[in-house]
Task: inverse folding
């Protein structure tokens, strides 16, 4: 089985809390990107087409400050396009970041030693960056919506990742990110959209 078939199986057959019976479905690759999916329903089967979408980073010369929360400055470190717009923030390197991370790791260690069953761990540092509001727009008037996000994580405690949809239309030439944080003035960043990224 190919890696692509593994992805198809994981996407189509995973049911929350329920593992399907092995003989209750089958997947057959017909040609590049097309799969025959059969749940052994007497009335129908599925034909699934999978497209590979390139991930393209928009030009960002250096991390750009976008706000401050709890004394730590947040920086825009990456903007990329695929079948969504991905915006990534991280904390500016320096003493405030390190002090807050050390305090979190100490708090987490204490929680791990004495945690009661079901008690939540202390919030990750990156969660405070969730208080920074972001609006995405372009020069074509597209209405973008926040599709999902991730605040922190093991080894990336300060990282914030937001996914917006839809993908910019072919008519859009610039993408604008408007940030509003609890401390400091609003920040607007405009980035060019290379023609090949939205064709």
Result:
């Amino acid at each position: 089985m190919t890696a692509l078939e593994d992805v198809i199986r994981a996407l189509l057959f995973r049911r929350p809390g329920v593992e399907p019976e092995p003989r209750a479905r089958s997947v057959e690759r017909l040609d590049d990107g097309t799969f025959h999916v059969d749940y052994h329903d007497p009335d129908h089967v599925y034909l699934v087409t999978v497209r590979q979408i390139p991930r393209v980073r928009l030009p960002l010369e250096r991390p750009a400050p976008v706000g401050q929360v709890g004394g730590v400055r947040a920086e825009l470190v990456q903007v990329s396009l695929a079948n969504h717009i991905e915006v990534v923030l991280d904390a500016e390197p320096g003493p405030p970041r390190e002090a807050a991370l050390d305090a979190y790791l100490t708090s987490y260690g204490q929680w791990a030693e004495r945690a009661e069953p079901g008690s939540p761990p202390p919030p990750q540092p990156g969660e405070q960056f969730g208080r920074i509001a972001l609006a995405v727009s372009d020069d074509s008037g597209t209405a973008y919506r926040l599709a999902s996000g991730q605040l922190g994580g093991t080894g990336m405690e300060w990282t914030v990742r937001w996914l917006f949809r839809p993908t910019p239309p072919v008519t859009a030439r610039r993408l604008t990110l408007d940030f509003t944080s609890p401390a400091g003035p609003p920040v607007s960043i405009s980035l060019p959209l290379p023609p090949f990224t939205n064709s």
About this structure: Residues 95-114 form the longest helix (20 residues). The chain has a mean pLDDT of 84. The longest strand covers residues 72-81.
